[in-house]
Design goal:
single chain; alpha/beta; Rossmann fold; six-stranded mixed beta sheet; three-stranded antiparallel beta sheet
């Protein structure tokens, strides 16, 4: 376990097992639909990679880079598109892949954008869901794990661009980010 991790919340094996199940569900639901699977950079890349390998269907992948944290531990509430899709989603089934749904603000903006672009359908799969933090009304269609309101890192998720490489999901020690709350 990394020295900055307070505890391992979800071990590597549990992540792999749950992703396999999600992949099977998506395979059943999207058979013959050729969806566009959209990863929200950077945190969801590892999840999306493992997820599409667990899906036995034709699909395309694309990426969006959205900023809502700005280096802190809580969402700023401001959502900025840093990189938009390359693909046209008009008439296509879109699966948004998120690492974590927290306030839901980012997801609500992306969901509305795809509907405005005339996607045939827009569904969301997230590895982690923090429903108690929700401030925006969003629908999460496929959930890996519901987690408590703790700052998590690993398996693609970061704090200040660190810890993404950890193979598990851990709770970051508050001492690592305590300086952000002292002026």
């Amino acid at each position: 376990m990394h020295k900055d991790v307070e505890e391992i919340l979800i071990p590597t094996e549990k992540i792999a097992e749950r992703i396999q199940v999600l992949g099977e569900e998506l395979t059943a639901d999207y058979q013959d639909k050729n969806p566009i699977v959209v990863a929200i950079l950077k945190g969801s890349v590892l999840f999306m990679t493992d997820l599409i390998r667990a899906m036995d269907i034709n699909l395309q992948i694309d990426f969006m880079d959205i900023s809502s944290y700005g280096g802190g531990v809580e969402s700023s509430g401001q959502v900025k598109i840093l990189k938009d899709l390359d693909a046209d989603v008009s008439g296509r089934h879109v699966i948004i892949v998120e690492d974590i749904v927290d306030t839901g603000n980012t997801l609500a903006k992306i969901h509305d954008l795809f509907q405005h672009r005339n996607a045939a359908s827009v569904k969301v799969v997230t590895l982690l869901n923090k429903p108690e933090r929700r401030t925006a009304e969003v629908s999460v269609d496929y959930v890996g794990f519901e987690i408590p309101d703790k700052f998590v890192i690993g398996y693609g998720m970061d704090f200040d661009e660190e810890y993404r490489q950890l193979p598990y999901i851990g709770i970051l020690k508050p001492s690592v980010y305590a300086h952000l709350f002292h002026n």
